[in-house]
Amino acid sequence: MYTIGTTTATYRCLKDQYYRIQKDFRTLLDMKSDAVASRMVADKFSTSKPWYFTTLGNRLGSEAREMLEDYSRIPSAEVDEHVYKMRDLLWSHTPYPSIGNFSFLTLRLMDHPLYPRIVSTLSTPSSSPPLLLDLGCCVAQELRSLAHHASIPTAQLYGTDYNPSFLKSSYKIFNDEDSNYTLIPANILDPNFFQITFRHLVHKFSIIHAALFMHLFTWEQQLQVCENVVKLMIDQEGALFVGCMVGKRGGGEAEQGRWLHDEDSWLRLWGEVWERLGTTGSWKVQGELRELGDVAGDDSIYYRGEGIGLFEFSVERTGESGASSRTS
């Protein structure tokens, strides 16, 4: 009995030691995992990234600077400090290249060939004022520009972005918490896109804009985006989808299967969109690729490489449903 008792006590002691060692080992693994996770997070938000610019330089356009001064009522001497502060706020949420290099304040719609027509359309008096939607609007800088530079009523201006922190932070950036913009956090590839956030906005927008947005997706995803764009556009002559993206001469895949367009591949994409939707009506598809190559400045990190450039596009409904022509 005594021997058995001693053996049992020894067994229990060894068992307790085993469980303590196992517990300590799990703790070490957890600590290691936490350390790895911490390093990954630190690396993700590191300001040593090549697209995190330490100086603003001339990257804030004159129109954007003037808008911050006059629209946002920021004293001219404090604009740069405000931009740095807001950039770092956004960086702490999502460290995208467009945040690090200050291009989140770049106004691109003003440079589009159809900008005068867009302003004219939005300014036309109507019992049902035309609406504009900015896809992937980031901090909705284009909407603020339309309100400030073109005097478009904010009730006509809608923006959507996958990142809700961009939309929320935009009110701090532009100092307009009491404004009447409609900013909607949403994922345009969500199967429930029209069942939830945009269920009341089918065929409501006369103009849809997307800057540096389409090139984020694969060919198949772009088909889905364009199908949803058609569903969002008014079913009338003159409806427009305009914008710009990174493009590539000859078209083709980039990193992670993302598709870059030129004039021919853009037209081919829309041919597939119409085929999938069974869309009727007359449409005009246009695009122009401006290659920048090695002459691009350090703030044009998107456009580097042979055949790479900025692709500017427009898709216009030129006739009512029932016609069937397509033009490029």
Task: Kindly list the characteristics that best describe this protein.
alpha/beta; Rossmann fold; two-stranded antiparallel sheet; globular; 8-stranded mixed beta sheet; 328 residues; disordered C terminus
List the helices and strands and how they pair.
Elements lengths: L1 H43 L17 H9 L8 H15 L3 H4 L14 H9 L8 E4 L5 H9 L7 E5 L2 H11 L7 E4 L21 E5 L7 H14 L7 E9 L3 E2 L5 E2 L2 H15 L5 E9 L16 E10 L8 E2 L1
Parallel strand pairs: 1-2, 1-4, 2-3, 4-5, 8-10
Antiparallel strand pairs: 5-9, 6-7, 8-9
Structural class by sheet pairing and helices: alpha/beta
**Low-pLDDT residue spans:** 1-7, 294-299, 322-328
Helices and strands, in N-to-C order? HHHHHEHEHEEHEEEHEEE
CATH class of the largest domain: Alpha Beta
Number of domains: 2
CATH superfamily of the largest domain: Vaccinia Virus protein VP39
Q: Give the N-terminus to C-terminus distance in angstroms.
A: 97 Å
Largest sheet: 8 strands, mixed
* Average pLDDT: 87
How many DSSP helices?
9
> What would you call the shape?
globular
